[in-house]
């Protein structure tokens, strides 16, 4: 046996155990091996307060010298119990462990108990003991996770105990001691935490919450949101603003360390200075304390004790002047409750569209980053050189204040660009936060772990499975991938939403759930560790493959708009499914690529699709004839669209010999169209027209409006290029008629633009202007880079014909800039006409002036270029070209 060196140990028969300095003694009870670090932390905390820790290390081992630790306890002034998973040894002749015996013998002392969480392997006898302890109103029962957190709790609680409990005379050792009465001098409410950093970007939220909380008919407001969103700071700021409205007091009640709902009332009592000593009814004591006074209670971190909702409801019912402002990951689900979901900070705009000096004022996320970066680097400034990286960091972190603060702290050693690169690999690059932050918020990982620790097994399992989704999911998808029925999946999802771990959105396509990427990244690590991770990935991929198959016919006809919208919302999941098939089963991919092509083409997703196709092309010879044709067709059209002429030609050359073996009429026709699209790369406009016309004839016998219109468009462009204007007009009008018949905005825009360009070439300028105006409005609505670019080129042609070469040069540059930024090139069949137009403008303006104006136009974004077209004063481009 042993004890702390600073305690004088005497035989049990000696009635006095003293310390040389006569300090108050604090007996520490715990099992040994599993809590060694925690015992050291408690010893340091006790010594810091100039008290003496008494740590009888044999108390929970076999054959305990019971008389000895009874003497220690009898001569100690306070008792601390530390518990985790082990119940402790039961000695010979005893029916309970030394750990439980010490607790039972300590009833004469003020007691502070601390329970370590989580405890997945807690022994059942310790569980029973803790259940009994919870029933005792005079015991302080607090949860902790780390030795550091425990040390802080012990220091705070002992200091409180000394001020409240030992003002009265200590009872003699000869008689049982009751809990001493507290000082008759009442304490005031705990003050609001003093802010050590500025609250950035929350002015609107402070006003909204203050207005809501200050209403006489509102008694309970709960600020919800994921960890790190800034709920506590917002609540404190609201409390400061409303301080004068609650004349009896505003009290801040920190609850993060409390894990038992029945201790919440006592925690409120301590915060408001109520006399809770010896009471078995904390609620009654609070009612007496509050009376009819106007109080604002800020209950911080309520999520792990939401079962206290009933008592809080009773408190509000009995104290009509009390208002509660709570922060929590989840709501309390009381009828009186008003929820205020705290949003992330608004994300910054593209720095290329906003001057650097405007980013700070227009983006709270950027302002927060700069403010916190200056705290660690006094000379940090937002500049042209780092603005793009700072914006990228804020976007990567989705406007989450805690994440932005952690990132900004890394600027002490990393420039923003280097930090952004590291964040692209892992959010752990954020590193630890300041030491005065709550331990659960020192890192994003700790924040997520804290939130997940509040879930039950079924909720945690679904959350882990949901990490397989990218950019959200539907309830149907969640149920299928998780192997649940939809009702069960919906119920669990609602619980996860109440815990602020997922968000439920109402969209035009119906309800949809999503997970912040800052949460998803860490939850995904748990998914990878699951034994069923491969099965989860397979079910996810199969679900989205089936979704794509459903879209095949609608994407080529009447339902194209609805399905492109739906697939756009699932673009991240579709990409994840493709990656799964690339890694595990590539056989279905050629058909999947062919099915998805209209969506990928219309929504500018061909860049990523091109990389997928390139991974499959080397194995094309191992595929069956139809799959090989589908793969080479996709390779040809994506390479052509992306401007990779060599790859497009190679794919077209591989595709031509396959045509005779293609039995599917639709596939045969579109393969001919792909060959037509590659022909202009080598200047073969005759073959372009030949293959396009043949494809169009085949498609006329099929119900394929979208591809029929594209074939008519291709024939019309080819005929325009070679000067066959009447034939071109017939084919372009066919495209326009198909667009109107099937209400297809993309086709309508494209047809009007080409008809307008043709009208300009034929000298019909008024007709051209009207058609192009319609085409521009429709093109902007489609969000298609290609469509807007060909529209701008057509306006450039019109401006040149009308005698304004500078405006023509500006618009020609504006057409090329967005394509270049998107990694696209003009379609091969359009390049000759565009090149001839640029040459004509250059010759008219002179090379130097053309290059200068063209470069200025290339810097414009699409809507800026549209404004140039629509502004009647834009005949002079001087305000834009400097």
From TrEMBL:
What name appears for this protein in its UniProt entry? BTAD domain-containing putative transcriptional regulator
Q: Where on the tree of life does the source sit, at the highest rank?
A: Bacteria
Pinpoint the DUF4062 domain residues.
25-104
What residues does the Winged helix-turn-helix domain cover? 455-527
Q: Where do the segments described as Disordered lie?
A: 172-198
Concerning InterPro entries, the annotation shows: DUF4062 (IPR025139), HTH_77 (IPR058852), P-loop_NTPase (IPR027417), TPR-like_helical_dom_sf (IPR011990)
Q: Name one Pfam family in it.
A: HTH_77
In terms of PANTHER family, this protein maps to:
HTH-TYPE TRANSCRIPTIONAL REGULATOR RV0890C-RELATED, REGULATOR-RELATED
Q: Where is the signal peptide?
A: none
Q: What residues form the membrane-spanning segments? A: none
Q: Which Gene3D superfamilies match?
A: P-loop containing nucleotide triphosphate hydrolases (3.40.50.300), Tetratricopeptide repeat domain (1.25.40.10)
